Amino acid sequence: MKTRGLRGKLAADPQIGAGNVLTTVLAHGADPDGPGLTFDTAFDGYPAEHPLTLGELDARVRARAVRLRELGVQPRDPIAVWATSAADIVLSYLALTRLGAIPALMNGKMRVEIAAEYIRRLRAAGVLADAEHAAALAGHELGAPIIGQPADLGAGDPAAAGPAYRHDQSDPVVITHTSGTTGVPKSVLHSHASLFAATRHLLSMPQAQGTRRILNALPAPHTATVLMVNQALGNQAEFFALSAQDGATVLDAIQRWKPDGVFGFSVTWAELARYDLSGYDLESVRLWFNTGDCSHEPHVRRLVAVGSHDTMTRQGVTRVPGSVFIDGLGSSEMGHSMFHITHRTGTDRYDRCVGRPYQFVDAVVLDLDGNRLPPGQVGWLGIDSPTLFRGYWNDSVTTYRSRLAGYYLTGDLVCTDSEGRFYHLDRAVDSVDAGDGRRFYTALSEERVLAACPEVTDCTVVMVGGPDGVVTDVLLELAAGADRAEDRTERVRAALGADVGATLRRVVLINSEDLPVTVTGKVRKVALREKHLAESTS
User: Fold this and answer.
1) Phi/psi at 394 (nearest 5 deg)?
2) What is the pTM of this model?
3) Tens-place pLDDT, residues 395-443
4) Torsion-angle region of residue 100: left (phi > 0), alpha (psi -120 to 50) or beta?
5) Which terminus of the chain is less hemmed in, N or C, by CB atoms within 10 Å?
């Protein structure tokens, strides 16, 4: 049973933040028998998919806090957490923040040599690693001891937990990391206030449809999952955290668990596009919520064609076929999606449009001298928001290099229209200066190819600039049954447009497993460019 007015009380509470949502929700009178969290693996004697009540969740967190304290963990200690299961990651985060420690959450897919270097750079006070990852770290210099396995922490006595640490709004509360597209990921620090600022705003507004029974298909160690855990607790929503984000796992979970909202990254929606979704029971889904990279139009259209949502008609609120897709643009550093645009079956504003900024965001388009650019002119995305990260842990050089004219530079190239909508053209590092004031964009090119070739489920464009000009390769993943013998070169060239099409070297059919990707599934275009250059040299 939900407590009336709880969301408003939380939004108005000056002490709440990303480090104490669970304890604060209970302190404001939330029903301990109400919804807590659900995980896809067994832990502490509970079977997989057991829906923890809020009280059971609190007990599991207090048990872990007791054991961590016995292991010597103190407030402000940075503790690396390297594991695969969502339960290990989320429960460790909640327990460490209850003690006032700083969990540094790590993606379980990280290569061991990179993970070891990442931990060393953290200058961690200790490491929590599951059995698989603890074994992988053996023999590596970490600069910190492995103090235990997350799965063993539940043996503590919840009754011995004592009061939770009292956070100041400025306290460091969690470290997550970037995708690591160019090597060792950057460690992103958030504070008690920064990682709750967007949640506070959303709690002050009417609760959106699709947020009462949430399937979390976001990577468990990512900033986005931390946000979603706290939003679910504040909304007293049911929340099922997945440990994997591949299409088959997500589809199976939707059919079995019947969520009304599915939250994930664009890479998961691209995977779902490989399936004939009409053959799956997706009727429960009202909302798909995307963050990270914005999504491609064909992937969105496949998703909004299934499920259903509520809309206001002359007869009142009516359930109609077709779901809603909320797209945006976010990153670990941003602390939440900065933009939002809503797609339904009948909407047609795509072309890499990420919509308008949230009310708490000041977003601008800048040149590299810090001047604001007018609508229609491409520049660097600058963000100022209370949700922004506090800096890169132990790396003030990179922290300050990412700031310009009072704004955080996200590394994205964007433009606006006359009505204040933003359009994402590319990551700056993936675009190419073509000379004569021209710049070519890989993400925008991918959008155009996908729109022109419906049998293509995903597309990766690789551009390399050199003294002889720009050379472009287009890598295509085809839907099952598509003609692999067809030469699509001219169709792709036409989709790219005259300027980029003139640089096309080849069109290559690939499988998804052929692409080098980061731990969160992003294509490592820097690796593809290096391969391209090596081939050109040879």
Assistant:
1) 60, 25
2) 0.94
3) 999 999 999 999 999 999 999 999 999 999 999 999 999 998 899 999 9
4) left
5) C
